[in-house]
Amino acid sequence: MSEFIQKVINGFNKNLSGKEIDASFKFVFPEGTVFVDENGAREEDAPADCTLTMKSEVFTGLIKGEVNPAKAFMLGKIKVSGNVMKARKLGELLG
């Protein structure tokens, strides 16, 4: 597992502590895939309600507040498939 993927998993699990998640998300990065559901975050490539594909730099920018998610989506830097409405829950996940 790459260091980046481990940091993403640790961050999600910290932010998810005590929160209920009613959807599953898959984050696909060049370094690997992170799956998030009611059981937490882990490195796994499983079917999800919503899948987001992006470069690690884009994800890092989102976390730091340096990248506007809507603009990144419109520019094709974030690709979303599945239930796009579930993606609205991502603010909770990203902290």
List its traits.
95 residues, alpha+beta, five-stranded mixed sheet, single chain, globular, Nonspecific Lipid-transfer Protein, Chain A, 5 strands
Secondary-structure-derived class: alpha+beta
Calculate the mean pLDDT score and round it: 91
Main β-sheet: number of strands, strand sense, barrel status?
5 strands, mixed
Please tell me what the overall shape is: globular
How many domains make up the coordinates?
Answer: 1
Q: Which architecture per CATH?
A: 2-Layer Sandwich
CATH fold-type name: Nonspecific Lipid-transfer Protein, Chain A
Note the run of SSEs as H and E: HEEEEHHEH
Within CATH, the superfamily carries the name SCP2 sterol-binding domain
Q: What strand order characterises the main sheet?
A: 3-2-1-4-5
Low-confidence stretches: none
Report what the structure shows:
- With 95 residues, the protein is α+β, with helices and mostly antiparallel strands.
- The protein has one domain: Nonspecific Lipid-transfer Protein, Chain A (2-Layer Sandwich), CATH 3.30.1050.
- 36% of the residues lie in helices and 24% in strands.
- The protein contains four helices and five strands, in the order αββββααβα.
- The chain has a five-stranded mixed sheet with strand order 3-2-1-4-5, with helices on one face.
- The longest helix has 14 residues.
